[in-house]
Amino acid sequence: MRHLSIDIETKSSVDIGKAGLYRYAQSPDFEILLIAYKFDERPVKILDLTDEKLRGKQGALLNGRQKEFNGECAELCEALRSPRIIKHAYNAAFEWYCLNQAGFETPLEQWRCTMAHGLYCGYTAGLDATGRAIGLPQDKQKLTAGKALIRYFCVPCKPTKSNGNRTWNLPKHAPEKWSLFKDYCKQDVVTESEILKRLSLFPMPEEEERLWQMDIRMNAFGVRVDGELIQGALEIDSESAGRLEEEARSLTGLGNPNSAAQLLPWLRANGLELENLQKATVAEALGREGLPEKVRRVLEIRQQLGKSSIKKYVAMEAAMGMDGRVRGLTQYYGANRTGRWAGRLVQMQNLPRNYLKTLDSARNLVKQGNYAGVRMIYGNVPDTLSQLIRTAFIPSEGNKFVVADFSAIEARVIAWLAGEQWVNEVFATHGKIYEATASQMFHVPIERIVKGNPEYALRQKGKVATLALGYQGGTNALIAMGALGMGLAEEELPDIVQRWRGANPRIRDLWYAVEQAALEAMQTAQPQAIHGLIFALEGDLVYGQNFLTIQLPAGRKLFYPKPFLKENQFGRLAIHYYTVGQQTRKWEVASTYGGKLTENIVQAIARDCLAETLRRIDARGLQVVFHVHDEVIIDAPPDVTVDEICALMAEPIPWAPGLVLKGAGFESEYYMKD
After folding, report:
1. What average pLDDT does range 634-642 have in this prediction?
2. Sequence-distant (≥ 6) Cβ neighbours of residue 98 within 8 angstroms
3. In this structure, which long-range contacts are made by residues 385-388, counting pairs with CB atoms below 8 Å and at least 24 apart in sequence?
4. What's the average model confidence in pLDDT over 417-425?
5. Are 342 and 212 spatial neighbours (Cβ–Cβ below 8 Å)?
6. Which of 91, 117, 146, 325 is deepest in the core (most CB within 10 A)?
7. Considering only CA atoms, which of 644, 643, 625 is closest in space to residue 635?
């Protein structure tokens, strides 16, 4: 099998950062400028599609008459179609979609994504960042001049007298820059192919390759959005913000009450000392008793104006194609510690919940742009708009949404993995895990933990313990899960921790077994097998890469790049590795331990359960339009039922014998939180 590495440079008036790949490439002025490519180990070639010799034949290309091309262009066109040639690109979704959009026919099945492969191996995203993280020599790394050249040739320029009022910079306007741009494009192919060489020693499973392809097809299909609702929400939000700002000015006498520099002194002068005006600080202040009414109202306005979720309507509008669909909402392997998907553009992973009982009425008012009606019936306009964000996603004409998610999947997976039999039995029977946990913790018959009995108060402790303590967390984990907001006192939290660990000894032992297996694999360089997991130290002698890997029951591996042992902050020998820092977003050292490794493993297995469900749904010929955490949203014909989808989710998984899964869901004319 031959291999083709490829990189393209394109132009479009659509901002790809705000609108995403698919809306960008659908723009009428979208155009491919350069195609750099190489076959196997041959030198890199480049096609300049701005060249007059080729531009004269663009019409033939776009009309599918590639045979009218000759030479290198004909060679490339044939290679893009050929099933005997595997195509590689760093972010292959971009090349695949753009090439097809421009008339270069190339099936997705023939493509492999080097970025996805890098994420699978624990590296970061971005060609430049990956090249540096993987340790490419300087001459193989991405050129640094690219951003400026892209700004010059690939996005519209501002017309001025000095540039002849042009809106695009063309090669003839800066021949030297254009020559450098071609070098930049060619170097991207060099960098990508060098990364691929190193990654090919640690291949992605074929199932993951197919899963990536499934993800790209889902993103390319997109999901329909309610344009009327989006437009109405933006209009109402603009009116609401204007009125709230005017009210704040009237109450405070400030020129700009949105300015922290102005508002903090005003609050201080009115008896309220705050360090900052962050959301959490304002929420805490509003919870205080005895606030002057004027101060309280100013803080409420601040809170309402700070509803950042409204920006999701703006994101939808920017990403919406001419056919009313938003595409590119998920990122395969967006969380590279676990392989879970991440949200893109609208950020589906953190959509506000909806609590309104009259969603239909609220949606109709917003679609009408009826600010007064929303204000009169629902009071808090920004909050109402925020709750309706989910409902902007609607099924295709004549279809419905079937929405289903796994019930308590992480609790099920960790109990299955650890062999915590009483938990497995709960999930295999009545499923009341919070009551059962409380029963185990406090030695109270589960029959007593029902509404109306004093023992029912124990359920809350069982619930927060189940949600917070599975990964070696203590009192801080309970607090982070909201234990204090549930009415629990801080002084009773240590007892809850000890009782939960005592009730779940196999899960507790799993943390230490996982940590010990990882340490032994590092210290001995010999694989360690526990609980259906295989811990190993893997590397290559050619390029000097090394990883701590954990093979999961599904066959997929978790990768921890460049691992080493040293004492952690507590003076214990611990595993350290390189990853992207959650706060810094830089490639840096992180440490881990048994509980954190267990969390990675459990969430990764839960992800693999979701992947299995996605494959089953796809095999049924049904279209998933997006998925969020453990939830799938299907754009389904009328005859598809929730029970059918939940049954697919509950089917036994061959690589997880004994794991009891359960799905629950609903049908709807729009997306929501049931």
Report:
1. 97
2. 8, 10, 21, 25, 30, 32
3. 385/233, 385/236, 385/237, 385/240, 385/307, 385/310, 385/313, 386/307, 386/309, 386/310, 386/352, 387/352, 387/353, 387/354, 387/355, 387/356, 387/362, 388/229, 388/233, 388/354, 388/356, 388/359, 388/362, 388/363
4. 95
5. no
6. 117
7. 625
Question: d(Cα 444, Cα 462) in Å, to the nearest integer?
Answer: 12
For the segment 220-225, the average pLDDT, to the nearest whole number, is 98
Write the Ramachandran bin of 339: left for phi over 0, alpha for psi from -120 to 50, otherwise beta.
Answer: left
Amino acid at 615: R
pLDDT of residue 4: 97
DSSP 381-427: HHHHHHHTSGGGB-PPTT-EEEEEEESSHHHHHHHHHHT-HHHHHHH
Residue 367 exposure: Cα atoms within 13 Å on the Cβ side: 13
Report the distance separating Cα 601 and Cα 489, nearest Å. Answer: 32
Closest CA to 7 of 259, 193, 218: 193
- Predicted pLDDT of residue 71: 63
How confident is the model at residue 54, as a pLDDT? Answer: 67
Euclidean distance between CA atoms 523 and 548, whole angstroms: 11
The residues with which 592 forms a beta bridge, in sequence order, are 575
Specify which residues 33 forms β-bridges with: none
CA distance 433 to 322: 47
Token representation of residue 490:
């801080």
Provide the pairing of β-strand 2-11 with 85-89.
parallel
Element (H, E) at 86: strand 85-89
Query: Which residue's entry shows tokens 């039999």?
Result: 421
What b/e readout covers 628-642, taking b as 16+ CB neighbours within 10 angstroms?
Answer: bbbbbbbbbeeebeb
In the chain, the domains with their CATH numbers are: 2-200 (3.30.420.10), 227-392 (no CATH), 397-408+516-674 (3.90.1600), 421-503 (no CATH)
Mean pLDDT, to the nearest integer, of 56-82?
65
d(CA 336, CA 324): 32
Q: What is the pTM of this model?
A: 0.91
- Around 215, how many Cα atoms within 13 Å sit in the side-chain half-sphere? 28
Give backbone dihedrals phi and psi of 371, rounded to 5 degrees, phi first. Answer: -60, -45
Q: Token pair of 107, please?
A: 């099936």
Q: Are 86 and 110 in contact (CB under 8 A)?
A: yes
Q: Which of 87-96, 98-107, 335-344, 349-358 has maximum average pLDDT?
A: 87-96
